[in-house]
């Protein structure tokens, strides 16, 4: 046992200070020569278990890859032993080469490499693949850890994937965004999804904008949180895009109140006006007038457009009439019919909704009013049928009027009916 004890005692320690590496390397080379001489001495001993034990130990101490592979229980144990004993000052590239050779020597049947063993062999792709098969969370964070390593941080930029637009995406961003997309599917993890996205630069911000399409309109918490990220990041254009998407989805669900809320947040006056128009068309088709009064106080400056004012006046007229306030309802009807800003395509509906007031005979209107109404009817008659009466056709079909009649028949019937009513009105 003497040669073994002497060799171990003389083995130089790896210095903490890199300035002493050169001196250490000289000492280590000299020690290695002495260790090989000790091995030669042991080989002269009579064969026995003790002789084999001493010889194997000495061979492992000088880094014999064959002996290390033969006695290691795991590939990782073999790799680390070779790094420590055979190449204590080796570069990582040399370590990778050594461990690749060891993986061949160590093979003792079916071999299933672990993430650690793949990294020790420099098999970055294999390690990432192994993470992929285990957990997206591990994969997303594994690349973060690799960035902390001087060696792997140099390799990572070369590891890229192709995005939908054909552009290359670096591994860390690719994995983080894919994991975020997975988290976006579940209510309780959407917040985490947003957190991953905002760490991925412009691509993450783009995904943050598009993610709104995957969030149910009913998930107000997630939507408010997403809005918070836009505002916090100074992403004004993204926030407006976010509001636009939510508004479109709200319209698809006939939620005109929600659509107007989002269009007002994006300060889109044109879309606000168009939404009021859609709400009126929906009333013609469904018979249900959207309740939009709650918007007045909150977004008043954005609700002064022609369509918006017409909608509110029309809703007020209906509300007054249903409350049996006929005189006030008549005043609202007069205002709708004489206002130059009232959209012509919706006036037929106003006439039909106000027909009960025109037929009442309670002298709500004077001769000047009736003449103005007749002039309005003349304008409607002169209007192209397709443009001015498509909404009226929807209105009449919904209310079980003759649905098989063509639009020109609808027009002539309407004109004749209103003219007859106005001619019979008892003006003083």
Automatic annotation (TrEMBL):
The keyword Transport applies. The keyword Transport applies. Pfam families: Nucleopor_Nup85 (PF07575). One of its GO terms (cellular component) is nuclear pore outer ring. GO terms for biological process: mRNA export from nucleus; positive regulation of DNA-templated transcription; protein import into nucleus. It comes from the Eukaryota. GO terms for molecular function: structural constituent of nuclear pore. Its main location: nucleus. Keywords: Membrane, mRNA transport, Nuclear pore complex, Nucleus, Protein transport, Translocation, Transport. It is found in: Nucleus, Nuclear pore complex. Component of the nuclear pore complex (NPC). Functions as a component of the nuclear pore complex (NPC). Belongs to the nucleoporin Nup85 family. PANTHER family: FROUNT PROTEIN-RELATED, NUCLEAR PORE COMPLEX PROTEIN NUP85. This is Nuclear pore complex protein Nup85. The gene is NUP75_2.
């Amino acid at each position: 046992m003497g040669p073994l004890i002497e060799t171990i005692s003389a083995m130089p320690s790896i210095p903490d200070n890199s300035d002493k590496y050169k001196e250490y390397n000289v000492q280590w080379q000299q020690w290695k020569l002495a260790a090989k001489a000790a091995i030669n001495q042991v080989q002269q001993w009579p064969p026995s278990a003790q002789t084999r034990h001493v010889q194997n130990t000495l061979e492992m101490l000088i880094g014999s890859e064959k002996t290390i592979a033969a006695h290691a229980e795991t590939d990782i144990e073999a790799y680390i032993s070779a790094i420590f004993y055979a190449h204590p000052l080796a570069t990582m590239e040399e370590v990778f080469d050594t461990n690749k050779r060891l993986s061949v020597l160590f093979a003792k049947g079916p071999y299933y490499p672990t993430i650690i063993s793949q990294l020790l062999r420099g098999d970055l792709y294999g390690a990432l693949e192994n993470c992929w098969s285990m957990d997206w969370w591990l994969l997303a964070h594994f690349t973060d850890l690799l960035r902390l390593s001087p060696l792997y941080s140099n390799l990572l930029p070369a590891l890229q994937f192709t995005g939908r637009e054909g552009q290359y995406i670096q591994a860390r961003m690719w994995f983080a965004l894919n994991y975020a997309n997975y988290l976006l599917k579940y209510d309780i993890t959407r917040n985490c999804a947003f957190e991953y996205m905002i760490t991925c630069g412009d691509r993450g911000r783009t995904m943050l904008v598009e993610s709104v399409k995957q969030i149910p309109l009913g998930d107000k918490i997630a939507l408010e949180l997403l809005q918070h990220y836009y505002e916090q990041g100074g992403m004004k254009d993204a926030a407006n895009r976010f509001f636009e998407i939510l508004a479109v989805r709200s319209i698809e669900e006939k939620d005109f109140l929600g659509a107007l809320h989002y269009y007002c947040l994006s300060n889109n006056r044109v879309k606000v006006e168009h939404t009021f128009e859609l709400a009126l068309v929906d009333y013609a088709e469904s018979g249900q007038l959207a309740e939009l009064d709650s918007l007045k106080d909150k977004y008043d400056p954005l609700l002064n457009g022609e369509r918006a004012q017409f909608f509110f006046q029309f809703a007020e007229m209906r509300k007054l009439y249903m409350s049996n306030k006929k005189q006030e309802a008549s005043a609202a009807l007069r205002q709708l019919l004489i206002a130059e800003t009232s959209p012509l395509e919706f006036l037929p509906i106003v006439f039909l909704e106000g027909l009960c007031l025109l037929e009442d005979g309670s002298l709500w209107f004077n001769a000047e009013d009736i003449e103005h109404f007749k002039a309005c009817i003349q304008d409607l008659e002169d209007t192209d049928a397709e443009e001015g009466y498509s909404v009226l056709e929807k209105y009449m079909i919904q209310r079980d009027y003759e649905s098989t009649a063509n639009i020109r028949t609808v027009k002539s019937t309407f004109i004749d009916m209103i003219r007859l009513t106005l001619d019979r009105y008892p003006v003083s």
